[in-house]
Design a protein that fits this description.
The structure is a single chain. Mean pLDDT is 86; it is low at 239-278 and 601-605. The chain has two domains: 2-235 and 285-424, no CATH class; 245-261 and 433-604, Tetratricopeptide repeat domain (Serine Threonine Protein Phosphatase 5, Tetratricopeptide repeat, Alpha Horseshoe). A two-stranded antiparallel sheet has the order 1-2. The protein has helices at 2-10, 23-26, 37-42, 61-74, 78-105, 111-127, 132-136, 141-160, 165-182, 189-200, 205-212, 219-233, 245-248, 287-302, 318-338, 343-359, 379-397, 400-424, 428-438, 446-455, 459-468, 470-473, 480-489, 493-503, 510-523, 527-540, 544-558, 563-579, 584-597, and strands spanning 280-282, 362-364. It has 605 residues and is mainly α. The protein contains 29 helices and two strands. Residues 251-276 are annotated as: Disordered. This is Tetratricopeptide repeat protein. Keywords: Membrane, Repeat, TPR repeat, Transmembrane, Transmembrane helix.
């Protein structure tokens, strides 16, 4: 109870009644309103980001179901979502304590030492500031769910393996499938199970090998997951384009090819997000980057400052990263072989295996490995186990007061950092301005930061940021859409047009830039030019439901008094929602149009 209370207290200021960062896209009671069983089934056959018009190559249907259930429970009470995340973190902390305690006891540590050692180490896990993103971001609750599945599942599995092996392996298979459907980082579960069996048992190695052989049964849930994922993320067959030759001819020669919309959301600004899912394969060229990532992750867990949403790619000298980790792992092996103390090695093994899916050695060619707080939530369980091994050594060789005092001081320091980071997560503007001030590469945050300032009504600050980076904006910057809106709101129409046109030269923002430029030109009374830009938006957009949406916008903006054209626009919006029911912008546009036409919103459909 005390451990759970500590975990909750560390994030007691982490449940504001508002949404931040990725949550604005996924956590929306309007988006999930009216979701039924048939709609839930849809989550299993589409990309995670499908409702935003982007094919990300990510497949997490249980996360979407989890969020939709919360939307049904909390409606627009956003603090409820955050409260659930905090409680899940407390549950994860308790399960980490249980797993660490079990591993220590099976590593030869007496229960009188193992239990307090696991408890003190779990306190550090509970309050660690590197967990702030996973707890504060409802979208990244998926990482907490994976941690719960891995730690709770392994603890349950190891306790039943000897007495009921069939039940243990069957249950672990089910847990494995559920974990994979929450997030890809759960893929390491089979390797973790084998490692813990091998390191925490004392019977001869042939016996341990026989105990581990049923691990191949986990290929069944893995194969089922890969089949579902492959079906959901497979490129759709070419569909007839619902635009005329006149519209197609409106596209300049340099604007053909695959495009994706420039979302006004944080995730579009993240490096390494693919435009279309690609095959999973071994990426040997990623080894050096992965070694640097592992080294940077250890550094970040030991020294969590400064905390950022996104970090620069780890650039530590490769030889330092290799030698440091070899020394650490070598010491753990020495303790295991010479002193029969496997706990440290078990902790490091857990850390590396849990981090392996995020290392992108095996993965999609479009994804590049990168450090982020959210990917360290589950791997930090391994470091918690390593810390518990160190605390157990102190309790055996020193007075308990030394260990308790050290953990108390460390926890107070970590809690202060966690509370500070929780405060930054209370709004987009606070979070992104903080990261903008601390980050060396400020341009990677501009799309998100400018968009956040515009949503908050801080138009002057948005214009200031755009002016500071005006030269970079002219270099075909995708965040030109945001700067165009910032300039347009203040009446700087020439600058707005220039920003939009710069964004049309960037593949990630082309269609949305054309659409925003069209609306600006319509506002300025340049109707013919506006019509051409709307046509370009439709023609350059390859996502079907967004093509319908842009076609509707053209009719609504250019023919506001023509009922026939407005009814045609309504048909486009209905087709857009038929293709993607979760598209909030199309739903809101349809409701406004129905009100204008004298219909009854959704009932008029």
């Amino acid at each position: 109870m005390l451990l759970a209370c500590i975990a909750v207290a560390a994030f007691a200021n982490a449940w504001p009644d508002m949404l931040t960062y990725d949550d604005r896209v996924f956590v929306d009671h309007v988006r999930f309103s009216g979701i039924g069983l048939g709609d839930i089934g849809r989550f299993f056959v589409e990309d995670l980001w499908a409702a935003s018009g982007v094919e990300s190559g990510l497949y997490r249907p249980l996360l979407l179901i989890f969020i939709s259930v919360q939307a049904w429970l909390f409606d627009d009470w956003l603090a409820g979502y955050h409260g659930v995340s905090i409680l899940l973190h407390a549950l994860a902390t308790l399960l980490v304590h249980g797993l660490v305690s079990h591993v220590l006891e099976n590593s030869g540590v007496r229960r009188a030492v193992a239990t307090p050692s696991a408890w003190l180490a779990a306190v550090v896990f509970a309050v660690h500031p590197v967990h702030a993103e996973a707890v504060n971001s409802v979208f990244n609750t998926s990482e907490i769910l994976v941690c719960i599945g891995l730690t709770g599942g392994l603890a349950w599995f190891l306790r039943r393996l000897d007495q009921r092996p069939l039940t243990a392996w069957t249950g672990l298979s089910l847990i494995y499938l559920l974990v994979l459907l929450c997030r890809e980082s759960g893929a390491a579960l089979p390797a973790l199970a084998v490692a813990l069996i091998w390191l925490t048992r004392t019977d001869p190695w042939p016996s341990r090998l026989r105990t581990c052989l049923p691990v191949f049964v986990l290929l069944i849930p893995l194969g089922l997951y890969l089949g579902l994922r492959g079906h959901a993320l497979a490129p759709p067959p070419p569909a007839p384009k619902a635009v005329s030759a006149e519209i197609q001819n409106a596209v300049p020669a340099n604007e053909t090819g695959k495009t994706t919309p420039d979302r006004t959301d944080s995730e579009r600004s993240r490096p390494g997000l693919p435009l279309r899912p690609s095959g999973i394969a071994f990426q040997p060229d990623r080894m050096a980057s992965a070694v640097r990532l592992w080294f940077a992750s250890i550094e970040h867990l030991l020294w969590p400052h400064p905390l950022l949403v996104e970090y620069e790619p780890p650039d530590a000298p490769l030889w330092i990263a290799i030698l440091t980790q070899l020394a650490l792992v070598g010491a753990a092996f020495w303790l295991f072989l010479q002193r029969s103390r496997p706990a440290l090695l078990a902790g490091l093994t857990f850390f590396y295996l849990a981090l392996l899916p995020s290392s992108r050695i095996f993965g999609q060619a479009d994804f590049a490995p990168g450090l982020a707080d959210r990917i360290l939530y589950t791997p930090s369980v391994g470091m918690t186990l390593a810390l518990a091994a160190g605390i157990a050594w102190i309790l055996r060789n020193r007075t308990p007061r030394v260990a308790v005092s050290a953990i108390a001081v460390l926890s107070l320091v970590l809690v202060s950092l966690t509370w500070a980071r929780n405060t930054e997560w209370t709004s987009d503007t606070i979070l992104l301005e903080s990261d903008y001030a601390k980050s060396a590469n400020k341009r990677r945050l501009l799309n998100s930061l400018i968009s956040a300032q515009l949503r908050a009504g801080n138009d002057a600050r948005a214009r200031e940021i755009c002016d500071v980076h005006a030269q970079a904006l002219l270099e075909k910057a995708s965040w030109g859409v945001q700067c165009g809106m910032a300039y347009g709101r203040s009446g700087r129409f020439a600058d707005a047009e220039k920003a939009f046109r710069a964004a049309t030269r960037h593949r990630d923002s082309r269609a949305f830039a054309h659409a925003n430029l069209a609306m600006l030109l319509a506002h300025l009374g340049r109707q013919d030019e506006a019509g051409t830009e709307f046509d370009r938006a439709v023609a350059t957009e390859k996502v079907p439901f967004l093509r319908e949406y842009f076609a509707a916008l053209k009719l609504i903006r250019l023919y506001a008094s023509d009922r026939t054209r407005l009814e045609e626009a309504r048909a486009h919006l209905l087709r857009s929602l038929e293709l993607q029911p979760q598209h909030v912008a199309a739903r809101e546009e349809l409701e406004q149009l129905d009100a204008r036409l004298g219909l009854r919103g959704r009932e008029g459909r």
